[in-house]
Amino acid sequence: MNEEIEFLESIYQNVKFTQESIARIIKMRDKNDELNSIIKQQYLEYKKISNSAKAMIERRKKKVKEVGVMTKIATYVGIKANMLNGEDISQIALMLVEGSKVGTEQLNRYMNEYNVTNKNIINLANRLLNIEKDNIQKLQKFI
Predict the structure, then answer these.
(1) C-alpha atoms less than 13 angstroms from C-alpha of 80 in its C-beta half-sphere
(2) How many structural domains compose the chain?
(3) Where are the alpha helices (DSSP H) in the chain?
(4) Cα 77 to the center of its chain, rounded Å
(5) If you ran DSSP here, which 8-state letter would residue 126 be given?
């Protein structure tokens, strides 16, 4: 049970971090184009995953650990720095692709590290892996 909670918390933290990042990008760009449509859809997909992970943690009578303030500030500063030279679509797409690649690597590591057998948790992790792979595929055309 403890490994399940740690695994779910890892998923939740990473997805919430990604949601924060995407929300910042959308707010900074404030454009109605194909890239924003794609990343808004990604945001919604990540939100579904984070809600599911949060519900699974709470069903196990544990409190969800939210993303820390320092992480949020670092995210904002990092995105702002990456977008200082303008809003080059390829630069933004590359940043998001790199994030999805890191997310995929972390999730694969968690799946190997934690001994989780609960089918709902495994399904959630696989859904997230598919979302990450789909994100990379959709964003490649902008790079």
Answers:
(1) 6
(2) 1
(3) 2-29, 34-59, 69-82, 89-113, 119-140
(4) 17
(5) H
Which residue type occupies 10?
S
pLDDT at 136 over 70: yes
Helix/strand/coil percent split, the chain, to 5: 80, 0, 20
Q: What tokens does 43 get? A: 């945001």
Q: 34: domain range?
A: 2-140
Amino acid code (one letter) for 16: K
Number of Cβ atoms within 10 Å of the Cβ of 136 = 18
67 φ, ψ to 5°? -65, 135
pLDDT, residue 87, reads 64
Q: In which band, very low, low, confident or very high, does the pLDDT at 64 lie, cut at 50, 70 and 90? A: confident
For the whole prediction, is pTM greater than 0.90? no
Question: Which of the four pLDDT bands, split at 50, 70 and 90, describes residue 32?
Answer: confident
Q: What is the pLDDT of residue 82?
A: 64
The enclosing domain of 105 has a CATH number of 1.20.1260.10
